[in-house]
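FAQ

Q: What does a record look like?
A: Structure on top, sequence underneath. For example:
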């Protein structure tokens, strides 16, 4: 995913745009803890990233844009906000600003919800003195104004290393100028002179990163996502779902086991060699390449370790990616990339973001696996790939591969084949069938350990295999196949 990048646009913009008491400082990424988004997993910590990634100077005013990473948009500097795909609802709760207009040191925050519906603007005056207030129109439940007061100014530290002047602002709901009780009165704004908000709407600042400082929460870099080693194993589930309407293909579930056989890592690329085993025990070599730019993870390029994707077309003139929060669960940092297929037409009169409702795709990343989930949707059909088991650095978690292979459907009636004794000693057994053409023995790691052509109805096989569980992959004369378990005891 394209990370939030500061666009160093126009020198005059930077000269005219004061840094002191700026709520969101230019050139700084600010990470705020935000743990009240409904339905967003069960998290230890949820981080929203606030950063001015582009700035447009109108002379008497400037507009700061958040998460606006797509260039060449003409005059369409519209708000870029979340899709209304159901699985994205939890990414926004109308509390993260989408853009801020600055005029005469007065900041006007603009908010939109996931239905592209405009919400309240919020006026903020960072240069106001202690005990001073301002009032502005704000549509609430039982009130129509907000009064913001600068309660105090003091000197404080944060992250144990940064010292700065701090202003505290309180909120009071008013109905036609009369104070009323509302939960919004609990909001507090802690603003530092040189680093922006220390607390934004009760969301504490958990980390900052600029050209000279990086303190607190530090987002993952490329190596944190891509660190698999030779011998590591990833088990994938591919799940295709479609209603049983005429013309729809049938739903299915498939499984893949990827064994890392080689790793190539240089300054801007990491490539994995992968030996893939499907749950029908067919095998082939594949690979994965991911690219990076400095320390920013590029989520949108490179091939994948996953099963092949359905390529989705681009719509309109511009394809925009949603920027999602980080969340941390049991020390693992997660991040999502959403291809929303929103578009703008910079040559027309309507610059409102538009969504293609019947198309979409997504990728989820974490610092444990790299890509651990992704999928795409087309009309009423969807395909998802999920990691359901793994062995990383010798530690096995999740589903066992042997369970998946044992549970697959046979392609041919197994009553035509007899394997005995089973369990066997030293891998010696008798295969009895009039229709078998070839057999292949596969260990639970997916490697073929024994093969033999069969040209008689009853064959004694002496494999000499060590103790363990094996799968006998049987190919019949009609080219259909069957898989049976074989247990070797000695």
């Amino acid at each position: 995913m394209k990370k939030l990048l500061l666009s160093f646009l126009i020198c005059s913009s930077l000269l005219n745009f004061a840094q002191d008491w700026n709520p969101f400082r230019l050139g700084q990424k600010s990470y705020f803890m935000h743990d009240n988004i409904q339905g967003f997993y069960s998290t230890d910590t949820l981080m929203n990233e606030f950063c001015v990634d582009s700035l447009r100077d109108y002379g008497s005013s400037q507009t700061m844009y958040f998460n606006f990473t797509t260039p060449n948009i003409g005059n369409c500097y519209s708000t870029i906000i979340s899709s209304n795909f159901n699985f994205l609802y939890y990414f926004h709760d109308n509390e993260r600003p989408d853009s801020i207009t600055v005029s005469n040191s007065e900041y006007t925050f603009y908010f939109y919800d996931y239905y592209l519906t405009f919400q309240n603007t919020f006026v903020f005056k960072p240069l106001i003195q202690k005990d001073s207030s301002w009032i502005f129109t704000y549509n609430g439940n039982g009130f129509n104004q907000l009064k913001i007061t600068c309660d105090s100014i003091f000197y404080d530290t944060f992250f144990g290393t940064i010292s700065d002047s701090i202003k505290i602002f309180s909120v009071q709901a008013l109905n036609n100028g009369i104070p009323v009780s509302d939960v919004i009165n609990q909001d507090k704004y802690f603003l530092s002179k040189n680093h922006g908000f220390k607390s934004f709407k009760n969301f504490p600042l958990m980390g900052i990163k600029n050209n000279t400082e990086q303190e607190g929460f530090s987002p993952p870099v490329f190596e944190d996502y891509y660190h698999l080693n030779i011998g590591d194993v990833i088990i994938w589930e591919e799940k295709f779902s479609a209603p049983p309407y005429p013309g729809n293909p049938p739903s299915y579930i498939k499984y893949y086991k990827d064994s890392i056989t080689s790793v190539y890592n240089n300054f801007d690329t990491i490539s994995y060699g992968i030996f893939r085993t499907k749950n029908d025990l067919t095998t082939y070599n594949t690979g994965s390449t991911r690219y990076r730019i400095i320390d920013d993870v590029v989520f949108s390029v490179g091939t994948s370790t996953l099963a092949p994707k359905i390529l989705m077309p681009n719509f309109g003139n511009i394809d925009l990616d949603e920027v999602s929060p980080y969340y941390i669960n049991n020390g693992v940092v997660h991040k999502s990339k959403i291809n929303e297929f929103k578009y703008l037409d910079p040559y027309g009169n309507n610059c409102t973001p538009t969504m293609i409702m019947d198309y979409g795709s997504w990728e989820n990343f974490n610092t444990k696996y790299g890509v651990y989930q992704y999928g795409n949707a087309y009309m009423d059909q969807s395909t998802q790939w999920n990691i359901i088991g793994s062995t990383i650095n010798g530690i096995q978690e999740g589903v066992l591969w042997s369970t998946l292979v044992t549970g697959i459907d046979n392609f041919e009636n197994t009553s035509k084949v007899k394997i005995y004794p089973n369990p066997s000693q030293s891998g010696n057994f008798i295969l009895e069938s009039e229709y078998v053409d070839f057999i292949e023995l596969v260990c639970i790691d997916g490697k073929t350990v024994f093969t033999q052509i069969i040209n008689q109805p009853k064959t004694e096989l002496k494999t000499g295999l060590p103790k363990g569980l094996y799968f006998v992959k049987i190919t019949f004369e009609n080219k259909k196949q069957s898989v049976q378990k074989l247990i070797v005891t000695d």
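Q: Is there anything notable about this one?
A: The two ends are 52 Å apart (CA to CA).
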